[in-house]
């Protein structure tokens, strides 16, 4: 069996800046990704947006952090 190829180079391409941190979980109430804080619509349209639109969203992301509460439980809770 062959080892899967590392795909991190795909996430480091320079042509489209992205806040993605590869933790793609949509919060059920806020409808924002808990990793990057973008909405589903923003994530879906990201590659088609202008650089200016992406920059405007990225500037807004820090203010969204209070809208997403981290999950309790799961492995992290069991380890404690």
List keywords for this structure.
0% strand; 4 helices; mainly alpha
Per-chain topology:
Elements: H1 8-11, H2 40-45, H3 51-64, H4 74-79
Quick take:
With 80 residues, the protein is mainly α. 38% of the residues lie in helices and 0% in strands.
DSSP helix count?
A: 4
Biggest sheet character: none
Integer average pLDDT: 81
- Give the SSE order as H and E letters: HHHH
How many E strands? 0
Q: Structural class per helix/strand content?
A: mainly alpha
Approximate helicity band: 25-40%
Give the percentage of residues in beta strands: under 5%
Apparent shape: globular
Report, as a whole number of angstroms, the end-to-end distance: 36 Å
Rg (C-alpha, Å) = 15 Å
Question: Describe it for me?
Answer:
This protein has 80 residues and is an all-alpha fold. It contains four helices and no strands. The mean pLDDT is 81.
